Amino acid sequence: MKETVEHSSFHFSGISPDLILDALMEVGIYPESGLTELNSYENRVYQFQDENRQRFVVKFYRPERWNRSQIQEEHDFTLELRDEDLSVAAPLEFAGQTVLEFGGFMFAVFPSIGGRQYETDNLYQLESVGHLLGRVHQIGKKRNFAFRPTMGVDEYLSQPRDIIVASPLITARWKDKFIESLDALIAQVKLQWPNSHSFMRLQGDCHPGNILWRDEAWLVDFDDARNGPAVQDLWMLLNGSRQDQIMQLDTLLETYNEFCDFDVKELKLIEPLRAMRMVHYLGWIIRRWQDPAFPRAFSWLQADDFWQKQSNEFVQQIARLQEAPLQLTPQF
Q1: Exposed end of the chain (fewer CB within 10 Å): N or C?
Q2: Residues with Cβ < 8 Å from 47, sequence gap 6 or more?
C-alpha cells in the first residue's frame, strides 16, 4: 500500500477541543484535566487525566495516511507484544475495538506511559533496549504485515525524489546542483539495496525519542511500523565516533541475540538506510508543508543556503556509502 500524497488540503483543521472531548466521552472516558498537546507532527496527540485521575494519551490519525486495516495491523502487533509481557505502549480496547472513529477521524486511546528520557550514552540502558528489541523481533519475524508497507527504494527514495524535485521551495540558484547530488545518492543506494531479503515486522522508527526509561526500556509509537530488515530498528541507536558505535553495537547485540539471532550481513545496510531516511525525511516535510505546523517547525527549509548545505550532506553520505561497513568486535 502506498501512502496518499497530500497536496491540496490540510486535514487537521477540523479538530477542536470540543471534538476531542466529545470523541472521548462517546467511548466512556470523561477528561477532567485540560488537553496537553504532545510533540507529534504526523498525527495529533494529546495527554489528559480523567475523573479517576488516570492519565491517558489520545492519538488522532492523519487522514489518508494509513487506512483502517493498516492502523489495525499496528495495533494488533503492539497488543501481541504486550500480551507477551513486553514493555510497549499498546492501545486500549473499547467494546473490543482499538481503532475508533469520530467526526471523520480515526483515533486511538493509550495509557500514558510515564518515564525518563532514554540516555543515549548509558550502556546499561542500551543493554535493556537490546533485550527488548530482541524479543520484539523474535515475535515480529513469525509473520509479515499484510497491509503495512515493506521498506524499499520506491517508498523511501523514488516517491520522495519526485515530491522534492517538484517543490517550489528549492532555491533556484542551487536546484541543479541539489538534484545532481540527490540523484547520485539515490543511484548509489540502489546499487547496495538487496533485491531480496528476509524482512520482518518492525517498530520502524526506533530512535531514542521513541524510548522511555522506567527501570527498563519501554518502546512507544509504532506509527511507522512496517516490514523491513532487523537493523532498521537498531542503527538509529548508534552515535558518536566509529569506535563508539562499534562498542554500542556490541553492547546492543549481546542482549539482542539472547532472543533473536542478528544477521551480521545486515550491517552493510546501515548507511543505505541512513541515506534513505535523509531523502524520505526531506520529502515528508515538503509533502506536509500545507500543514501550518510544518513551516513553523521547519523554517530552516526556507533559508537561502539550505539547499546548498543539503547537497553537501548528500555528497558526504555518498562517501560514507563507499566506506567499509561497521564490524562487530571479534570474540575470542
Answers
A1: C
A2: 35, 36, 38, 55, 56, 57, 112
**What residues act catalytically?**
205, 221
Q: Strand order of the sheet with strand 105-111? A: 36-37, 44-49, 55-60, 105-111, 100-102
d(CA 228, CA 203): 10
Q: Is the dihedral of CA 25, 31, 32, 37 positive or negative?
A: negative
Q: What is the mean pLDDT of residues 117-124?
A: 94
pTM: 0.93
What's the rounded Cα separation, in Å, for the pair 207 and 222? Answer: 11
Distance, in Å, from the CA atom of 193 to the CA atom of 185, rounded to the nearest integer, reads 12
pLDDT of residue 6: 40
For 261, the grid coordinates are 539471532
pLDDT of 75 reads: 98
Q: How confident is the model at residue 10 (pLDDT cuts 50, 70, 90)?
A: low
